[in-house]
Specification:
By secondary structure, the chain is mostly beta strands. The chain has one helix spanning 86-89; strands at residues 4-5, 8-10, 22-23, 30-33, 39-44, 51-55, 60-61, 64-65, 69-73, 78-81, 92-97, 102-108. The strands form three sheets. Strands 1-4-11-6-9 form a five-stranded mixed sheet, with no helix packed on it. Strands 2, 3, 5, 10 and 12 form a five-stranded mixed sheet that branches. A hairpin with a 2-residue loop joins strand 7 and strand 8 (64-65). The longest helix has 4 residues, at 86-89. The mean pLDDT is 97.
């Protein structure tokens, strides 16, 4: 099955309310439109355990795959990520959450 798309909320000078979170699709993975200025807010809803999120790097250099970026989100914590180069992560950035405790919100400035 294809990856589940994470919706992107456009920021403005009028302000925007936080959109509904997208739950990690553990079976198929997620993806998000990435301009390189895209901002990802990732929350771990688990009460006691940290959870991993993998930013998949779909490129190769010299015929060799570039290692994915794996980040650990502490229990009940939220982390915000930006400056995600399209040359590394692509314009449709694949993201894998380890469990359904991972929740995504995405903004575009």
């Amino acid at each position: 099955m294809p990856r589940t798309q994470i919706p992107v909320t456009q920021l403005s000078d009028a302000g925007v309310a936080d959109p509904a979170e997208t739950t990690a699709d553990v079976a198929n993975g997620n993806q998000v439109a990435n301009t390189g200025k895209t901002v990802l807010r990732i929350r771990n809803a688990h009460a006691t355990l940290p959870q991993n999120v993998t930013f998949v790097t779909p490129i190769t250099v010299g015929g060799k795959a570039v290692s994915d970026t794996v980040v650990s989100i502490p229990a009940t914590a939220t982390r915000t990520f930006g400056s995600l180069p399209t040359s590394l992560y692509g314009t449709q950035m694949p993201i894998d959450g380890a469990t359904t405790d991972i929740k995504f919100i995405v903004f575009e400035p």
